Amino acid sequence: MARTETPVTFLRSDYKEPAFTIKSVDLDIALIPARTIVVNRMMMQRSAGSQNQPLVLHGEEQELVSVRVNGEIIREYELTPQSLTLHNLPDNFELSITSANAPEKNTTLMGLYVSNGNFFTQCEAEGFRRITYFLDRPDVMATYQVTLRALKNDFPVLLSNGNLIKQEELGNGWHSAVWQDPFPKPSYLFALVAGKLQAIQRTIKSQSGKEKLLQVWVESKDLDKTEHAMDSLIASIKWDEERFGLELDLDRFMIVAVGDFNMGAMENKGLNIFNTKFVLAKPETASDVDYGNVESVVAHEYFHNWTGNRVTCRDWFQLSLKEGLTVFRDQEFSADQMGSESGRAVKRIEDVRVLRQVQFPEDAGPMAHPIRPDSYQEINNFYTVTVYEKGSEVVRMQQTLLGREGFRKGMDLYFKRHDGQAVTCDDFVAAMADANQKDLTQFKRWYSQAGTPRVKVEESFVSGTYQVTLTQSCPATPGQDKKEPFHIPLLYRLIGDSASSEQLFELTESSQTITVPGLSKKPVLSINRNFSAPVVLDFEQPESELLILLKEDDDAFNRWEAAQKLFMRSILNGKALDAELVSALRAILRDAALDPAFKDLLFTLPAESYLYEQVSVIDPQAIHQARRQVRGQLATALQDDWLWAYQEHQTPGSYKPDAKSAGKRSLKNLALNMLADSGYTKTDDIAFAQYQSANNMTDQYGALAVLVNFSLSHAQACLSNFHEQFKSDALVIDKWFALQATRQIDLQDTSAVLTNVLALRKHPDFNIKNPNRARSLIHAFCMNNPGAFHQPSAETYQFWAEHVIELNHINPQVAARLARALDRWKQFAPNYQVHMKSALEFISKQMNLSSDVAEVIQKALN
Ligand code: 0A1
Ligand code: ZN
C-alpha cells in the first residue's frame, strides 16, 4: 500500500521468527469520523534468542500521540512512515501506544474507514497497521479485548470480535461496548463495526448441543434481503459438522454487510464483513447467480473459521494454505447443495470455466506465480485466481490421490497437530502424507512451480493392444525457465470396452505409457475425467471420437469438454459445424433426462479469453467474429429447438432459487439469446413480454440483456424503465451499468460501446470511489467485453490507462485489479500491441504510483 519510489521485493526465503510476541491486546477506541483515537495496551514478550534486538512495529497513515513502556512515557524511538522502532526493552513489559487516524478520509478501504456514515475495518493483509502500531504479521497471535466508544445517536451499534462483555452509557450522548475474543488471533482477523445497522437473528444448536446466536447486520432498508444469507450460514455450519467434524467454536457469529468493500468478504473472527453484493438477496433484485454467490461466499468465510483462523498462515507466502483449502471446501459445499450428481457436475464445470478463463491466462502471463509465491512487492496483488482457484485444484488433487476418506484423515491430523498455530503449506501436505503413508514429495512441486502443465496424449492400437503415451511439459514462467515433472493424477476410462471402469493414473515422469492388451477394437479414451488435474491436454482426438464422447461419456465433465473441443475447432479453424454434430447437439438439447443447467453450459461457447490461450498470436477481432459466427450457426440450425426449449423451461409460480429451477431459467434465457441470434423476428416481443411479466431478477435481467445485446426495439425503453424501477438499489444499478459496459458490439460500429461508457462515466449515479460501481463500469468494459475493448486503435487502451491512474490515487487495490487488463499484451497482434504498450508506458511514467499498481505495470513491461 505504501507509495514507494524504489519497489521493495519481499522473499519467502527471508522468513525469520519475530523478535517479540504479543500475548494480549487491550484496545480502547474513541470512534470519531474525522479523528479516531486508539489506545493500544499490549503485553509484550521477547522471544528466546533475540537479546539486544530492537522492537520494530509496523504503522502507517496515523499520527503517533504517545508511547509508554510499563506506564512510563518514552521519547527515544525511531519513527518512519512505515515503522516505529524501540530500543533497550526488557524481556516482558506492557507497551501502551496512543495514536490517531482519519477514517472519513480513508478512500483505500484498508484499516478503519467510513462507508455511508458507518465505521468498518479491513485488516487483511496489512490493514491493522493503519489502526495502531503493531507486529502486523500473521505469526503473532494474541487475545483481544476491545472497548469501543462513540456517540450513541450516530453509532447505536458497536461490534467487534468474540463475545459482548459489557455495554455502558457514558454521558454527553456517548456510549461504549466491550468485546472479548477468547481465541488468540493474528491482527489481520481483527474487526470492528459501528453505526446504524439492524440484524436478523436466529439461534441454532450445534452438533454437540451448544446454543449459538447467528446474526446478519445490514442497513434497515436491506433487512428484507437477509434471509438467504442466514439460510446459507446455517447450511454451512451443518455441512462442516457433517463433512469434516468441525463445529462453530464461538457462542455468537455475526455477518455484516457494507456497500464499500474492496473484495468479496472477510473472515474476521466471529465478525465476518461482507460486500453487500454477497449478502443481500431477494427475488426481485438478485439473480440466480447472485443467490449462488451469496451461498458460496457465506460458506467460504464461515469455513475460514477453521481453515484460516484456528489454523492460520505463518507468513503471507503461505496464503494458499488457507485460501486454496477454503475455496476447495466452499466448492464442495456448493456442489453438495446442488442436490444431485448432475448438479455436482454442473458446479465442477462452472469452476473449471473460471479456472481456464482467468487462471490459465494468469499462469501464462507476466504475473505468473506458484500457488505459494517466492516473492512479492505488494501482497495485495497476490489474492489471485492462482492462489485461490489453482490452490483449490491442488487440494482437490490430494483428495483424488488419497480418496475422500484418506483426505479426511489428513484433515483430522492437520487440526490435531496445528490447532492454534500459524503454519505453512508444507505442514498441510505433511499431515496429508503422514495420515495416509503416501509420499507427496514430488507432488509438492505444485506448490513451487508456476505455469499450467501440458500433457501430450498419443495413442496406438496394434494387434488388439491399445497404448496411450502421456508426455508432460510446462512452459517457462518469470524466474522459472526449467520445470521438473509434476505428479499428475489423471482419471481415465476406455469407452467401448464394456469391462473397463474408471481408473486413476499417476503421471510422475516426463513420459509414461499405459498398455491395455486383448481388445477387439480401438477404445475411445476419456481422460482427465472430472478435470482431475489442472492441465492442458494436447490431444488431437479425432472428431468422430469426440462425437462419441459427446453422446455417450458417463463423465458429465468430459461430455461437456467434447462439445467445447468441437466448438473450439470450428471457431479457430473457421469451419462450419457439420451436420452430424448439429444433430447430436439437437438430441442433447431435447433429451429430457439431462439437467437443463448442464445443457446451458454445454451450449455456451468457450470464452474469448480462453480462446486467446489457444493461439500463438491473438487477433481479438478475428476471434470475436469467429466465435459469433459459430454461435450464429448454432442459433440458426437449431432455431425450432430453441423455441421449444424456451417454451418448455418456463418456471411459473413464485420464485425459488434452488438449482433445478435456476437451471431451467438459465436454459430458457440462453434459448432467448439464441432466438435473437437466429434472427427470429418475434424475439423482440417475447423478450419484452418476459421483461414486463418477470417476478424475479434472473428473468427480468435476462430479457433486458437480450434486448440490449441485440439492439432490439424495446431496448432503450426497458433500460430506462429498469433504472427508474431500481434507482434506489445500488446493487441493481451496478447491473444496469455492467450490462451497458459489456454489451455485444455492433460489428458496423465497433466504438459505440466506448462512447456509451464515456457517457455513463458522467452519469450522476456513477461514483468511482465505490468499488462495486467502479467495477460495474470500468473493469466490466476493460476486462469483460473483449470484443469492444480490444480495438486496433489507441482510444480504449488510453481510457484504461487514465482510469488506472485515477483509481491509483483513490484506491490502489481497485486500481491494481484494473491494471491487470493488459497482462497478455505481448501475445497480441502488432497492430494492437503498439497501442497497448504506449498505454502501459504512459502509466509507468506517472509519479506516485502505489506499490500495487507499480508492481503490475512493471512486470507487464518487463
Ligand atoms: N480473506 C478474504 C479475502 C480478502 C482479502 C483481502 C481483503 O482486503 C481488501 C479483503 C478480503 C477471503 O478469502 O474471503
Ligand atoms: Zn478466503
TrEMBL record:
One of its GO terms (molecular function) is zinc ion binding. It comes from the Bacteria. Residues 102-189 form the Aminopeptidase N-like N-terminal domain. Residues 451-539 form the Peptidase M1 alanyl aminopeptidase Ig-like fold domain. Keywords: Aminopeptidase, Hydrolase, Metal-binding, Metalloprotease, Protease, Zinc. Pfam families: DUF3458, DUF3458_C, Peptidase_M1, Peptidase_M1_N. Its cofactor is Zn(2+). Gene3D superfamilies: 2.60.40.1840, 3.30.2010.30, Neutral Protease Domain 2, Peptidase M1, alanyl aminopeptidase, C-terminal domain, tricorn interacting facor f3 domain. SUPFAM superfamilies: Leukotriene A4 hydrolase N-terminal domain, Metalloproteases ('zincins'), catalytic domain. Its EC number is 3.4.11.2. It catalyses: Release of an N-terminal amino acid, Xaa-|-Yaa- from a peptide, amide or arylamide. Xaa is preferably Ala, but may be most amino acids including Pro (slow action). When a terminal hydrophobic residue is followed by a prolyl residue, the two may be released as an intact Xaa-Pro dipeptide. Residues 544-862 form the Peptidase M1 alanyl aminopeptidase C-terminal domain. Residues 229-446 form the Peptidase M1 membrane alanine aminopeptidase domain. GO terms for biological process: proteolysis. InterPro entries: Aminopeptidase_N-like_N (IPR045357), Aminopeptidase_N-like_N_sf (IPR042097), PepN_Ig-like_sf (IPR038438), Peptidase_M1 (IPR001930), Peptidase_M1_dom (IPR014782), Peptidase_M1_pepN (IPR012779), Peptidase_M1_pepN_C (IPR024601), Peptidase_M1_pepN_C_sf (IPR037144). CDD domains: M1_APN. Belongs to the peptidase M1 family. This is Aminopeptidase N. It comes from Polynucleobacter victoriensis.
